[in-house]
Amino acid sequence: MSPIIYHDISSLREALQPYRGQQNDKQGRQQRIALVPTMGNLHDGHLELVKIAKQHADVVVVSIFVNPTQFGVGEDFDSYPRTLDADVAKLATVDADYVFAPSIDAMYPVLPPPTAVLSGAIANQLCGQSRPGHFDGVGIVVAKLFNIVQPDVAVFGQKDYQQLAIIKQLVRDLSYPINIIGAPIVRADDGLALSSRNQYLSANERQVAPVLHQALQELAQSLKSTALSQQAFDKLLVDTRTRISDAGFVIDYLEIKTDELGSIMSDSTTFNIENKNIVILVAAWLGRARLLDNQLVVVN
Amino acid sequence: MSPIIYHDISSLREALQPYRGQQNDKQGRQQRIALVPTMGNLHDGHLELVKIAKQHADVVVVSIFVNPTQFGVGEDFDSYPRTLDADVAKLATVDADYVFAPSIDAMYPVLPPPTAVLSGAIANQLCGQSRPGHFDGVGIVVAKLFNIVQPDVAVFGQKDYQQLAIIKQLVRDLSYPINIIGAPIVRADDGLALSSRNQYLSANERQVAPVLHQALQELAQSLKSTALSQQAFDKLLVDTRTRISDAGFVIDYLEIKTDELGSIMSDSTTFNIENKNIVILVAAWLGRARLLDNQLVVVN
Prior knowledge:
Chains A, B: The active site is at residue 46. Chain A is of the alpha/beta class.
């Protein structure tokens, strides 16, 4: 069945009201609301988020909003693909219940909003360094969506690993009563992480793009299987960078962090990955597409 | 009846759950939850907030939390009066339903929290200038209390005029579904605005303190009754300052703003209060007490 679409905040809130409080489903459990925030132009990765949300809730709200405050000057806000009708048709196939597709005016009566939700150190690295202000925009729009929907559960993709970590921190620091679920990356058969921005790739670039995932997988394998000296570790990183660059990418960053995005260096000169779960994160341009990927490495 | 006291977030949330959603009271109206945030050491001003809250909701939660993040270095965080038992006894007389009195650890598992809720220009003036970071602490604790209680209504005193304006902005900018009610200032018989910090005053200082309110009232009267030249306006301000200082106060600020805390100057040199509701705001030290007061002037 096709989801019901709301463009304004008050109608959505009214529609969700019956699911709150002591309302029980047929099994006698309290009903739960899930939120899946998206910028639309949905692909199978998004639909997977909805499927996971369905497992954790009785009603699933998918927000579709290309959020202006998370785009920087010169970024692709204007050209970002907007495909609401196709999105709604796809959401019908996975039984999403409600679509929240607000206008910019509905979300931002004052733009930019004077109030800011900032995420501190965790946001000042990786994508936050190459996209100044990006996570400030994410912070405020996610806080707004949480307050509008007041969900019990919210599902975010692990492809945007740093975003997910920032949102978990936001939920803890602002005491949101929301269970944040990180959904595994959905990949094409050749390994490329699904992303709306993949459509910016030319046919040739699309052929090359899976190198990003392959390089990360192999680096993860090497990190897991070998006791590494600092030198060997540095060489692995250099080799991975070279491989990605040689394929035609312009690397924005390739970094190894603890799974909470802390430093893996036990001091400024010594690295130490023992007893730590780590994550390799990459952002790289291929043509006019900036692609993200990451790979968790569970040590031990 | 004595309110029920909760010290941890999850028990409070559980207690409030029955009031949410489609639950109706005896008149068939949907039940509403009100929040009255306080730092405890309650006086009649606080009790008035609770009475107003009772008029707008079926269940009233009073939070009592001396919030460390809104105190600066050298301020009175350590000495701020903590009187939970007496507070609870007073709340019983006005039928508050629940008291939320969390520990610092419960509110801030990480202190300071990396996530920040900043209020921009409106917070960088008046008290924000003399107490750097104060409203950042207010922003995060209010956001947390809103998320913990998820009230329909929250009541704040108009004595903290700037705080009230900041919270209204926060609710708008973060899309909180909360009706913010500003409660009139409660005054002693001699006109002094009630405040927990009044107890820092010596007996002599307490005699002098009402001058603050009297000076503001008279300034308001002059502003309302006269068509003023810039010169006459400036003189009125100087005279008011002098009167307050001569009484023994050290003035932190005395300013006239629009009721939304914007500038009343139509440009940098010309003042224009026609067709604007304005507010006179003062902060002044008397001994070791920093007293706040304000006076609305409805023009026309």
